[in-house]
Amino acid sequence: MARISGIELPMNKKLIPGLCYVYGIGKTTAMAIAEASGISPDKKIKELSDAEVAKIQKIINETYKVEGDLRREVQGNIKQLMEIGCYRGLRHRKGLPVRGQRTKTNARTRKGKKKTVMASKKEAPKKG
Prior knowledge:
Distance between the termini: 83 Å
Shape: elongated
Radius of gyration: 24 Å
Oligomer: single chain
Structural class: mainly alpha
Helix content: 40-55%
Number of helices: 6
Mean pLDDT: 90
């Protein structure tokens, strides 16, 4: 059972796609880790020995910021943008797209479910 940076890696996947399950490690980084550790990228995760898993873990800890540390840094950066009141920070605060996407249509992922705005009916004048 391979556990790297607190994440259970899927046993039936090869090394490169398996390492991508760790937040902060993509395909390019996974290939660099495999090359640095000297482990074949074609090897499945269930075939890795404990020594090889430890070697991968050591390389990740020394070289890359992953999982909790990276998430904390990203959230801190977003919080800083909101505090200084820059345009991107305001977009984060309002829950709108940050990178210039259109909002008249689409943007449903950021904006959430549609909220229908109804025009209120005017009351009929009272007789009397």
